[in-house]
Amino acid sequence: MQDSLNFTGERFVPGIEGEIVYEHVHRYAFARRYAAGRRVLDVACGEGYGSAILAAGAASVVGVDIDAQTVAHARTTYASLANLTFVEGSAAALPLADASVDLVVSFETLEHLEAGDQPRMLAEVARVLAPGGALVLSAPNRVEYSEARGYVNPFHRREHDRAELERLLDAQFPARRWHSQRVWLGSTLWREGGGADAEAFCGDASRVDPAPVPAPMYFVVVAARSVEALPAPAPAVSLFSDVAESELRRAAAATAEAIRLDALLRDRERVVAERDGQLAAANSHVRHLEDLVAARDPMIAERDGQLAAANERAHVLEGLVAERERLVAERDGLLERTNAHVRHLEELAAFREKLVEERDAALAQRDASLGEANARAAHGERLVAERDAGLASAHRRIGEVERQHAQVRETLEAAQRRTGEVEAECARLDRALEAQERIIAYRQSLRWWFRLPWVRAKLAWKRFTRA
Description:
The chain is built from 10 helices and 9 strands.
């Protein structure tokens, strides 16, 4: 748990100095007169210092804030106050029962809500207030807070001018007494002994007391010869400020100038530190250069020798590079010719496969023709056998058929004619068979297989030229 909260500009945190202290603490001091003996709700209580101020005279105080870390911090910081509690919750959905408090205070809360949530917040305040209860609320006047100063608060969602704030309050709180608050720098005249017609406070976020009459810088005396001659008493407090608020503007300008000069001083210190670092680096570099200069001459001589050797080697390498480029060019040409030859061989291989297919078909046809020739030869042999058998039978029967000589002669002549035809056919088949055997023997020779691609190429060329 943190002991303190960081100031972000959205919530006031005790310990911050400047106008914001007067504005925030004065509001809670002003509201104490209404909180005496009452049940009080502090909406958007923040760090809790204001709720603690109210708790000094109230019967009980409940501080509500939407930020869990802030609520936890407030509970720890103000745990010693028995009549003060803190609850996490939204201003537009208060975590309290109906009519449970007599006074609601909410300083600089409304403008932090979206426009649609602002009426809901006021309705919630009216809900938790008991009959006869009151609301003490503050909100920035947009005309002076933002427009006149050209200022945009990043935490504000919807600011109002007086007419807009009146219309917003009309629905829930039609009876109102307006007060104005502003940090006002000027000269103050105090009546000795003070008075009931004025009040002044002195303190901080932890304590607020009536302000004592300050020690005079100058005495201002109203005198007369007798008491009766004295004029009527002046007001207990009289204030004056120049219209331009020059003293306040001077203080603001002085603060801005101090901030600027402080930034310049930090920047100068940073530049000096950088310069010192650069100077140290430069000195180190100078010493390094001096060492290099001392070792430079022998290194230069050695470098010259190395440079001469390098130049000689460069000439050799240039010759080698030229030779390499020539070899690369030759290799590229050879590679191109090789690729062309490979493509040609691929075409020849494809053509050879086609010729092989044609040869296989021709061999299959030849085998079929040889089968037919063999069948015819077998038939001829059967006929010759039959002829021989017929001749033998004829010789045996010559003696027996002489009586039928004329008839047998005629039969014999017919048989001879048929035999001549068979012999002629057998001779033709023998010649054809011999020719086929020569062809087969030739095609089985090595010479034929060397000639075959050229024969096929020639046939393909003839077909190509005819096409």
